[in-house]
Automatic annotation (TrEMBL), chains A, B, C, D:
Family: Belongs to the chorismate synthase family.
Stored Pfam families: Chorismate_synt
Quaternary data: Homotetramer.
Enzyme class, broadest EC rank: lyase
Textual note on the cofactor: Reduced FMN (FMNH(2)).
NCBIfam families in alphabetical order: aroC (TIGR00033), PRK05382.1 (NF003793)
Organism this protein belongs to: Maccoyibacter intestinihominis
Protein name (Swiss-Prot/TrEMBL): Chorismate synthase
Function recorded in the entry: This reaction introduces a second double bond into the aromatic ring system.
Enzyme Commission number, as recorded: 4.2.3.5
Reaction catalysis annotation: 5-O-(1-carboxyvinyl)-3-phosphoshikimate = chorismate + phosphate
Superkingdom of source: Bacteria
Binding site for NADP(+): R48, R54
Length: 365, 365, 365, 365
């Protein structure tokens, strides 16, 4: 049952329920010597916190992170980093209806089927608040990657059938939807307004690009870099699809179209003319940018009446009340980026012992 | 670097290169008491072995499996099951060209980048022959699932842009492409003939349906059942995309369309009117059939001339010779089914200790 | 570097430094449905907290535990249990001397050798306070074991060369040394008084007996029950030796003396006439009580002058000041018990899927 | 149940039963570029093979190892190394008596208790032949260590109450008991002759010294270097006790006696005047030789009549026939050395990513 730990070398364990005392994460295996402050982490958490726009719940949570261990005199010590965000906004509201029924599209029924009962307050462990631990840890991972010259950029690629047509990275932070295309963001906003008026919600797609990965990272068989990314991204609640590079389009392609031709650049480095592979060949990075995408389902909490069942054996009609985002995508952008960062740091650490000559150099010099 | 082991309770470790002495797998953690013979495993291996149709390499390999340990008097003992397939058809051909260059779409360059050199004969460890160990282990996992009333059915959903329009399971074994639609199979065969004439190859999509899973299997956070399936399927060489249920289509959907309504059936069981979720909610099975899909890229080995580089720093034109499948999909169908079976058995084993009352019942009765 | 996680199914991750904000543990994989309150845990923590007798540091710490997650309406939910003890008594004293030198018998030098620097305040991560997380988790594990009819009893077997000669379990809680022999406790107390007068410290031996384990628990090869216990107990800071059953005495024995004869008792159960094996055969429990022992070295912090080095390349004489226990053993008794409990719960959970017939029964009934 | 895999980075999985087709091991995670031949491995296997002296079973097994994968052109490739020793000497003898009863001191009863039945031929999976896989993998690990300047020397320290009084390493290979003291070896041989005449067996102690370990290797909390060594050595069938450095003697010592004083040597290296700690402080190597000891119980198979039970519910008298070593110790010497080597390589690989500055150096240079 132990499923709240992720990673092998850079290992994180998240804990906490939506309406418990708080949520948090322990990072075990962070290399010593990284400068780290709570501000570094807060910047990431702010990207997912609610109340930022009309498309996120008006719930006001500060989501202020505290570092409880593992940092001394401003640097990581190599020992576990414990990060906590206390829950401040747990209203003592009446959860008896949610407690008694299974909301469509939620994990209510499956939790009960597994454990016999559940913490039903605000989604409990399957609440989006669980991702706070992931993002806090991802901020640390991303900072390590930056020191190694590796940068991640995630953004909203589409909402409903409105997709970006430019990739203007500077625009991402300018709109509430984190889209790198101001036009598309405007159209998507209008579409979401309609969804909200209809008491409905929308899905979308998140894309993440990783620059600067050296070639040869990842393990060739089960622990392929793309397989680990797939698991990481698919472990985010609402994700229903994952792609690397051309993804599902490769199923329509011919080999002559899909293969990326190698060439030597002026510095004698191996490069590729195209990047259909999305930066990974045979489960290892090939030096080109890694490109991944996640399909995110529409928020299951909608205000339309829905057919469902209660725990007493009755078919019922449910009308969900309260405050819910009409789209999960924008707040999940930083979660995707965080999970990708965790996978990359882990793979880079693991890779250091892949050649005997490197071990000899490391220990005998 | 240890990346050839998969699973936690039902743990498999594959080994072997295309042109070494053989390929194999050790299954550690198989429950005791399962009737098992080499025939059980051979049936699965035969579904991926070459030489079955004009769309697979004419290479004749028997791929005959031997059980070296873990089975006594016809039953598994609970100790490791070692399975081996000796390589019989390693021609002592000249590999100097492949050794010297990096084939587009292959792992040649990334292997070299990681390890400094590679076993270049026939793709070495990144050869499709590595999947023999997966399928042999998958056959054992599938047999356990069958004892529990769980059945997996994988098939080719599309090749290029030719997709099935019926789901006639009886038809799957009738055509060389493992398509559950005779018409689509005929069209796809014609399309592949064209690809071969053009010295090219095609991608496609594999789908797998799992019936009979009880609800509540899988862990709610990182080790979600769909996340583990994503990793399992993405660890297969040519896979570039993965979906559960409606997958990428959910990104276009509204919540009211995508949510599956619950109801009680006549026996008082919780059921769903639709299955957009593909049988998994919050990372745990919901009792509906699990539906997953994998996008498979076109075979990278094509006979058209391609631009690439050699290890001596030169840009070259490569013309691959030899024998290669024009499409990976049909032989990968049983690999997808096998990887899914491995994930499910593992999750079912892990789940047994999720409630204290079950532990008390198990040990105190 | 990730070395702060222990266990496979019942997995714990500890965090925290002696003089940081606090210390804690996350338990991932605790079965759902266990009644659990902070009092259950506090009882265990109180057995290791300082200030209980003249043989423990007079430092006054309440070590009050808080449950931050994983418990709902008084029962564990199956999700991670986060436990924290805030540090209240971190005096802002001057650590410059300890920071600059390597104390003999401590981890100062090895921490620096590994990480390049360390949190030197009060021992940092290698402080005895790290065991608070272990004991908090051990309390939960022990409560599960009790529900299964399994009980652990740990006590001080010897201090210096004063060893118990009776095993009066009722006496354990009556003396500050946790010895099951009032006479031995009195003699050991006098001996410790002498050590303190000499500004010195003493080692000792802890023994733990586990009753009620069913037979067949543990895995036969690397994850033997005794091997996992060995690792668990040896991971406690000051432990330098570990034994099961007759332990090192078996090296002097003959097979005819050391073998335990089996017989059937009046109820038809397989029993053993003796228990030289200490309840484990071939790595699996044999139904007899499990008996283990740990040798604990003397407290390395002594007030006598000692030769050592500083970080500036000089040989120096060190006189440690402050407050230190003259013996580690009594406070480590509950740590040994906790680590043993963690191993047993894990093994019991893992064992549930060892037979196919049990899986079929579990899922098909 | 998956307990046949050991190690995290350098991960081995053993398989095979005494009287099955063979025994073997898969090494996953061996660094690429190590020169490796079957002779390297055979040298280690020869140290444990039977028929070497009158104190080992006269059974003649060649135990010839074959490398099936992972080595190309004489060097490891970084992919799994599969090693197999086929069983040549499985006599089709009558095992009905052993099948029906539980031998004292063996795992017969516990195997049945766990799995419901067992492969009873020659001990099945709990046979000493299982260690062939460990030794084969240990040979590879030891070769890596040698490249890093680290050497392991294991030997027999005592048999019964005859202990070595000198440490003449050159003598180890000169006597059948692997004792570094010719006198002690002669006395122990005479003692074993007596044991054999009495149809009995003897226990003993194995010691292993490791030179050349750099300081700072191992993880400070649960995965302490000594904790991992404890588990590794305790996972060997007949081991009942484990010590590091002064071990159980530290329980009698005072802090002033047990602490090792640090000093700077002429080259400015941190050294210790004594080595009571056995080369490990706070779970990390301190640069001094690592010294460990294992207590090995007497061979449980003795020819004296013994009381036991059969599977039909009867108390019986058992007289074991066949061929058995009167002492396990000499053949286990190389097993101890192998297990220690596996732990050290793993810890050295894991340690490479413990500092950010090392990662930056590795990837940015």
């Amino acid at each position: 049952m132990a499923g709240s730990t992720f990673g092998k070398q850079f290992k994180i364990t998240t804990w906490g329920e939506s309406h418990g005392a708080g949520v948090g994460v322990v990072i075990d295996g962070c290399p010593a010597g990284l400068s780290l402050s709570s501000e570094d982490i807060q910047l990431y958490l702010n990207r997912r916190k609610p109340g930022q726009s009309r498309f996120t719940t008006p719930r006001k949570e500060d989501d202020a992170v505290e570092i409880l261990s593992g940092v001394f005199e401003g640097k990581t010590t190599g020992t576990p980093i414990s990060l906590v965000v206390y829950n401040c906004n747990q209203k003592s509201k009446d959860y008896s209806e949610i407690a008694a029924c299974y909301r469509p599209g939620h994990a209510d029924y499956t939790f009960d089927a597994k454990y016999g009962f559940r913490d039903y307050r605000g989604g409990g462990r399957s609440s989006g608040r669980e991702t706070i631990g992931r993002v806090a840890a991802g901020a640390v991972a991303a900072k390590i990657l930056k020191e190694l010259g590796i940068n991640l950029t995630a953004y909203t690629k589409s909402i409903g059938d409105i997709s970006i047509s430019t990739l203007d990275l500077a625009e991402i932070a300018n709109n509430a939807l984190y889209m790198p295309d101001a036009d598309a963001a405007a159209k998507a906003s209008a579409y979401l307004d309609t969804c909200m008026q209809e008491h409905d919600s929308s899905g979308g797609v998140i894309e993440c690009i990783i620059d600067g990965m050296p070639a040869g990272i990842g393990e060739p068989v089960f622990d392929k870099l793309d397989a680990d990314l797939a698991k990481a991204i698919f472990s985010i609640g609402a994700v229903k699809g994952f792609e690397i590079g051309d993804g599902f389009l490769t199923s329509f392609a011919k080999g002559s179209e899909n293969n990326d031709a190698f060439f030597y650049d002026e510095n004698g480095n191996v490069c590729k003319k195209t990047n259909h592979a999305g930066g990974i060949l045979g489960g290892m990075s090939d030096g080109a940018p890694i490109v991944l995408r996640a399909a995110v389902k529409p928020t299951p909490s909608i205000f339309k009446a829905q057919q469902t069942v209660n725990r007493s054996g009755e078919n019922i009609t449910l009308e969900i009340k309260g405050r819910h985002d009409p789209v999960i995508v924008p707040r999940a952008v930083v979660v995707v980026e965080s999970m990708a960062a965790l996978v990359l740091v882990d793979a880079l650490m693991e890779n250091m012992s892949s050649r005997l000559e490197h071990m000899i150099e490391f220990y005998n010099s």
